[in-house]
Amino acid sequence: MSGIVAIVGRPNVGKSTFFNRLIQRREAIVDSVSGVTRDRHYGKSDWNGRQFSLIDTGGYVIGSDDVFESEIDKQVELAIDEADVIIFMVDVETGITPMDEDVAILLRKVNKPVFLAVNKVDNNKRLENAVEFYALGLGDYFPIASTNGSGSGDLLDAVIEALPEETNVEESELPRFAVVGRPNAGKSSFINSLIGEERYIVTDIAGTTRDSIDTKYNRFGFEFNLVDTAGIRRKSKVKEDLEFYSVMRSVRAIENADVCLLVLDATRGFDGQVQNIFWLAQRNRKGIVILVNKWDLVEKETNTMKTLEQEIRREIEPFTDVPIIFMSVLNKQRIFKAIETAVKVFEDRSKKIKTKLLNDVMLPIMENNPPPAYKGKYVKIKFCTQLPTPQPQFAFFCNLPQYVRDPYKRFIENKLREEFDFKGVPITVYFRKK
Ligand code: GDP
Ligand code: GDP
């Protein structure tokens, strides 16, 4: 787990400018994969080699100017619940507003690290003005300018310092499955049918809030850890049905998982909210299985299953070879299949293709379909190897890696998928200089 940083603050202080700056940095440099950026409120970033997830909670507030205070309160509560570190952003241009004061009151009570970032400090005059923010009672602040990045280095140093120690959950030898999805999709029912009721009873008696969301199970002859987003976790004061909340809840569970079991309600389909969670898992390079639940409620005509399956595959382009299982928790239909499939995805995600086999298969393919010449230059690919990373990453060595364009990378990714079976497993393809 890499740690979660949330940015809170009222509209227009510059949260998304800051957020985009951090996320783009990473995407531009590291994340050259063909995926599409669909969720601008959540992203991965790193500073000095330390990775973390960044949430722009403010991004969920609609109609940014006339925002209601209750929205801000929810945002802050959400950050308090879900983040390891909170960045509270204010705006030197406007100075302290009543809304800032309200947020400060909430944040002063929190026993998580809170960093006050005074944004839009573009010149020395504004640096002087920033002093007024001491009045918020949050101690020292970081003067920054999100538009040009100044000051953000010191802020990020402090943020990284305050993050919990990085635990490498990827090394656990048991599969770690996260059951994620919208409220009411049937996640708790699914988990109950997998593990029985006893876990809930234990939780009730203890009267505890369970934040340790990682529990070991042995079912159907498979051993796995279940990373839970349903039922067990303490109910927040934040209403469950708020769009952002269910996504936020999923962030940590997804981070903690090897494979995400994305449960959706067949009667509601693969809607925008489900897509958000899907792309979250994909961007985190987690294995994915889509479980279309409540199949018992769907009136079936000849091609119902096929049509819905095709619809879903269209939505998840270009990552289309994800297993999709139609199940009914109610009728205990294909629940075993769901777990079996998740285990298969887990195994594919952790497998290592021998270098010789990889080259024997891929070199002829690339010889027959070389990258198109670019600016009159020919790219010659000499050798490839799978990197020793927890999830599949492949390096292709060639003379001119900078001339390999995205469509060719996608072509290579698809060939790897066809030849070596990575259904439901995000893979990464790098071209490097040799
Ligand atoms: P959000 O609503 O908090 O996400 O705020 P935005 O990121 O949308 O920024 C609001 C406005 O402030 C935009 O017009 C930005 O260009 C501007 N802004 C953001 N950061 C800075 C900065 O460092 N200096 C100045 N002068 N303007 C900024
Ligand atoms: P969660 O919010 O995702 O944990 O969803 P729940 O497990 O609480 O389920 C929401 C509702 O859907 C409950 O009333 C369940 O009984 C119902 N439900 C769950 N799975 C199925 C199913 O396969 N078929 C039908 N008809 N109802 C289901």
From TrEMBL:
Organism per entry: Zunongwangia endophytica
Protein keywords: GTP-binding, Hydrolase, Nucleotide-binding, Repeat, Ribosome biogenesis
Q: Which gene encodes it?
A: der
Task: List the InterPro entries hit by this protein, alphabetically.
Answer: G_ENGA, GTP-bd, GTPase_Der, KH_dom-like, KH_dom-like_a/b, P-loop_NTPase, Small_GTP-bd
GO MF, one annotated term: hydrolase activity
Q: What does this protein do?
A: GTPase that plays an essential role in the late steps of ribosome biogenesis.
Q: Does the keyword GTP-binding apply?
A: yes
Which Gene3D superfamilies does this entry report, sorted A to Z?
3.30.300.20, P-loop containing nucleotide triphosphate hydrolases
Stated name of the protein = GTPase Der
